[in-house]
Amino acid sequence: MPTLTSLRFKNRLYYVLLGLGGIVALAGMYAVHMMEHYGHIITGMNNQIVWGIPHVFAIFLVVAASGVLNVASIGSVFGKAIYKARAPLASLLSIAMLAGGLFVLMLDLGRPDRIIVAATHFNLTSVFAWNIVLYSGMFSLVAVYLWTMMEQRMNRWTTPAGFAVFAWRFILTTGTGLIFAFLTARQAYGSAMLPPMFIVLSFAWGLAVFHLVQTSIYAWNEKTLDPAIMGRKKNLLGVFIVASLYMVAAYHFTNLYFAHKIGFERFILRDGDLYPALFWGGYVVLGNLLPLLLIFLPGLGKTRCVITASMLVILGGFALLYVFIIGGQAYPLDIFPGYEASSSFADGQINAYHPSLYEFMLGFAGLAIAFMITTVSVRVLNFMPHDKPYIAD
Amino acid sequence: MTDVDRRGFLKTAMGAAVVSIAPGMFLFDMAHGGEAVSSRVRWGMLIDTASCTPGCNECVSACSRENGLSGGVAATDSQWIRKIEIKDISTGRAVSLPVMCQHCEHPPCVDVCPTAASFKRADGIVLVDRHLCIGCRYCMMACPYKARSFVHEPLQDQNPDVPRGKGTVEGCTLCVHRVDQGLKPACTEACPNQSILFGDLNDKTSEIAIKVRTVASTQVRADLRLNPGIRYQGL
Questions:
Q1: Domain that holds residue A201
Q2: What is this structure's pTM?
Q3: Chain A residues 24-43 with a CB less than 8 Å from chain B
Q4: C-alpha closest to that of B115 among A122, A4, A65, A58
Q5: Residue A340: which of B74, B86, B224 has the nearest Cβ?
Q6: How remote is the C-alpha of A307 from its chain's centroid?
Q7: ipTM of the shown complex
Q8: What is the CATH number of domain B3-233?
Q9: Is residue A384 part of a domain?
Q10: What is the spatial distance between Cα A64 and Cα A97, in angstroms, rounded to a whole number?
Q11: Domain ranges across chain B
Q12: pLDDT digits (tens, 9 = 90+) for A257-307
């Protein structure tokens, strides 16, 4: 039983955490105000690197928001009891991260004040426009799904709602991958591999985030997660890591097969200074191999190892997205294949990008929004997983 | 009020309405001419790279003057047209040429724009509606020619004919404000070697249509099948 002192301490800690999240979110709003006032000149983005750090944060959050629902889907669609108990928490995290990601994406716009235009003027051929529907639909669907789980009278609708969410999130992450897959002219993008790659990446990133939050909630409530449950979930994370590494490898191998993309692959994998370092060191080693060792090496795989592995998977995700988004734009667009090119507009040159503090402030504000939504919700509603004494499956 | 009175009142009211609306309609018609933009026209350019002088920037300067651009070449400055020096990797042959929005028949920027701010006029000119652009920059990612710029800073002293806006994307308009007055784009007029031929590709008797039929010309990244309105000779 928690003592009165510990409850008082936690109460204070809760407000301190909320305050810290609020400060980070406010700092992001300040960055937005500055960008609004002075223009994007104060960021590191320019006419060559048009999407920067905010997009790395936003896409991570949106992709992880979809992937975290995997936990819920395994429960509601495939009927696994331990996942069912965690479906509400997974749904909450999904809403929180989606909100954080969209916060960043929207406030990075050149004209965020015109967001209503995006809702009233729809170009049906634009995957961005589709995504506006997909994101708002996801919010509503997951909210309904949560309602069916948390309101007893609605429980009988949980399975159909779970199926709807299951389908929707696949389409949503496909949409996120398609943003890049449709950029046919760019060597880095324009690949049909991207939507499935994003889906598999979402599994790993979402589960990693889930592990971190679940561990925090158990610690907060002074409970220990059943080692059997931990064992199953860590193995699942391991499988997702292997699968995402496979998809990323397949994407690069297919690119290497196309002669016109070899230059880009050399840049990303070998010659591009920061980008190969981030790809191999950040994504492959820290974000995949080390977590796999922490999970599967005999003698390891305990809670602390799984938490470290989860953190590394998240960091690896950021590294991969940086390489994918920024590196993909840094490599010069080949307008005249077979020719060397030079101009005042950086044709034929590797494009430099120096992110500014404002971009990081906006990106971290997205994380803070997700953190605050989660923290408040977990406090006011019952999101603690409730496992049955006997787990049949 | 009697019936006759009512009839009289209605007649007077209708007469007054016609008198007050008709001049406005007449003036509107005068201002906008008969037909607006027609798809019977396809504006385009034929650029002769053989006569384009390396190092000459007259077209670029003219574009900046006409459209109120700063003319700066920092990474955040707008460049609607730029001179690219290219060298064939296998033969070493060097060519200098201006590159701007290629005014594609199937423009990727129009496909990807979420709000339909990027649009193609019936006469083939690809434009950005500055009132609808939310500044997402997806069109810049999608354009195979890097033809678009994002306005990174507040603007001063704009040319009233060419409205621009901080936080929105812009690019070559083919000097649509001049073309609609029967003039040629600024770059075409400024070129000292007359390397840029502007005209209606659909009009078989136009100089550009005759030239396109009689000389070898190429479209940049023709493999993408976007059918740009800008063609290059001597590439």
A1: 15-336+346-378
A2: 0.92
A3: 36, 38-41
A4: A122
A5: B86
A6: 17
A7: 0.93
A8: 3.30.70.20
A9: no
A10: 7
A11: 3-233
A12: 998 899 999 999 999 999 999 999 999 999 999 999 999 988 776 888 999
